[in-house]
Amino acid sequence: MTFMHGEGNTSGYNGTWYTYSDKIYDGPRPSAPNASKAYFVYQPQYYEKWMPFFDFIDSWINSINSTQSF
Length: 70
Prior knowledge:
This protein has 70 residues and is mainly alpha-helical. The chain has helices at 17-21, 44-64. 37% of the residues lie in helices and 0% in strands. It is elongated.
């Protein structure tokens, strides 16, 4: 799976944020990693590290506007 670094790259940034923002996750909060899904947070190497951050952002957004979520 290739996200921000680009195919075969392990550092640097080859793109803009909007190119990748729709690949974080889709739908309800993921409850477990799933490598077959083409979204960032489902990947086993990212799930445990990034879900707490996404949960924090979601709670912050909900505290400002309960009709929105991350």
